[in-house]
């Protein structure tokens, strides 16, 4: 029941949206909602690994800002021909920076034996402060119109009628599901989150597994940034603000246990879509002000945790 609950809730939201505004079920609106949810969904796939292993990452929004800033600075550097080679290299830089940010979180958490909440709270401040410094308190924008033109299809383009961000989200979901459900590493992630001591006695290298989940999180953040940068062509210190809240909410309402030991990739992606659907319904209707979207998301995560607690007591 827990595995299908997010999809039942999503169906109920679809019904509510259709009743409140007939424009909700139009193809253009649903494709827009899917595209906008892709950033959080991709990040939340990485968060599923971290949380399933018993960890937590509060720095994803700040690391997204840092990765976006460095990626754009590389694009503006002009060290390569301003064509596809430059775009490809910038994507590689983004993946590298995101992976290193995740590695830093994992290494300090594991080697320092510090609670991940504290570590990622610290790196959240560090990453955002560095971004502010790089931007000199302002924004970092892609300077070349030609480069912006090459980047734009990553966000606005379609393949077989589906937006490119949605396809990238689907690929990330497929890869994440394969790793979590079909590999020894995925089984180790669940084992570490279920019972760290038992996993260690079973021969699982707990520290290595937990650290790698943060690297996966960092790579997922970088992929989301690669999709996000073409949207606005700029990064500021406020880029990715509250993305950590949205990612964790998507993971929790998707059925992954915040205590660890249970991970549901497709539920997570459904959860990210649900968050965007809620925001879309608020914009299309006058029931609740769209300025309260953050408050509604906060209520959703509290309700999701109460439901999880209730299910745990019954099991």
Q: What do you see in this structure?
A:
By secondary structure, the chain is mainly α. The protein is built from 13 helices and four strands. It has helices spanning 5-20, 27-52, 60-77, 84-111, 116-134, 145-156, 164-182, 184-194, 196-201, 206-232, 243-253, 265-284, 293-314, and strands spanning 139-141, 158-159, 162-163, 234-236. The strands form two sheets. Strands 1-4 form a two-stranded antiparallel sheet. The protein has a two-stranded antiparallel sheet with strand order 2-3. Strand 2 and strand 3 form a beta hairpin. Helix 2 (27-52) crosses helix 12, helix 3 (60-77) packs parallel to helix 5 and helix 6 packs across helix 10 (206-232). The longest helix has 28 residues, at 84-111. It is globular, with a radius of gyration of 19 Å. The model has no long low-confidence stretch (mean pLDDT 91).
Brief description of this entry?
The protein contains 13 helices and 4 strands. The protein is 75% helix and 3% strand.
List the helices and strands and how they pair.
Blueprint: H1 5-20, H2 27-52, H3 60-77, H4 84-111, H5 116-134, E1 139-141, H6 145-156, E2 158-159, E3 162-163, H7 164-182, H8 184-194, H9 196-201, H10 206-232, E4 234-236, H11 243-253, H12 265-284, H13 293-314
Antiparallel strand pairs: 1-4, 2-3
Helix pairs in contact: 1-12, 2-7, 2-8, 2-10, 2-11, 2-12, 3-4, 3-5, 3-10, 4-5, 4-10, 6-10, 7-8, 8-10, 11-12, 11-13
